[in-house]
Structure formats: structure tokens, C-alpha cells
Amino acid sequence: MFTEEASKKQDETFQALKDEFARLDQLEKDMRKSLNLPPEGDVDLDMNDLPAEVKSLGEEAKAKAKREGAARAAQFSAESNQPTSTGGVPGGRRKGVLRI
After folding, report:
1. Dihedrals φ, ψ of 8, to 5°?
2. Is the Cβ–Cβ distance between 87 and 74 less than 8 Å?
3. Domain extent listing, the chain
4. Is 22 within 8 Å of 12 (Cβ atoms)?
5. How far is CA 35 from CA 10, 28, 49, 90, in A?
6. CB under 8 Å to 33, separation ≥6 — which residues?
7. Are 45 and 36 a contacting pair, CB within 8 Å?
8. Which are the contacts of 86, defined by CB distance < 8 A and separation ≥ 6?
9. Does residue 41 contact residue 32 with C-beta atoms inside 8 Å?
């Protein structure tokens, strides 16, 4: 049941997310300014023009993101394959059945 307390907590969480987004947005603007990039939009870079250390950092970041994504996918897959308590709900254990 959705109560006023739950609504208040949801509003507080939403405000915290808005504040964090504003902080990150300002951080991005500051970084773009320090790198002499346009304030908004994508920037096309030629990877061959980047210094070797920047290329290395980019490759490390890609590899880390790929590992973390695979780990999260595996975790989600493992969680979704766990048996759930259906409490005797008809069709509760059949694949493709969503219990509401």
C-alpha cells in the first residue's frame, strides 16, 4: 500500500538524485571547459592522434566496464534462476509466468 510516508521518502530520494545529477552536470561542464571542448554535444576524436598513455587508459576503462557488465549480467542471471516461494499460486513455477 502506498502511504504518505512512502511518498515522502520517494520525494526525498528523487531530490537527492536531482542534486547528484546537477553536481555531475556541473562537473562535466568544468571538465569540458578545461579540455577546450564545446559545452555540449559529442566530440569526434581520431584515436590515432591520442597519446599512448591516453589510449592505454581508454583500453583499461573499456576492459573494466566489460568485466563489470559481464559480472552484473551473471549476477542477474543467477538471481533470476533462483527458485522463488510461490505459496501454492497456480502457474507460479512455470517458466514465462509472471506472478503479480
Report:
1. -65, -45
2. no
3. 9-44, 45-79
4. no
5. 37, 11, 15, 60
6. 39
7. no
8. 92, 93, 99
9. no
What is the tens place of the pLDDT at every residue in 55-97? Answer: 899 899 999 999 999 988 888 777 766 655 555 555 555 666 6
Using an 8 Å Cβ cutoff, are 89 and 99 in contact?
A: yes
Length of the chain: 100
Residue type, 38: P
Distance CA 28, CA 31 (A): 5
Task: Tell me the per-residue pLDDT of 4-49, one tens digit each, with 9 for 90 and over.
Answer: 888 999 999 999 999 999 999 999 999 989 988 888 888 777 778 8
Q: Is 42 exposed, middle or buried (0-12, 13-18, 19+ CB in 10 A)?
A: exposed
Alpha-carbon radius of gyration of the chain: 23
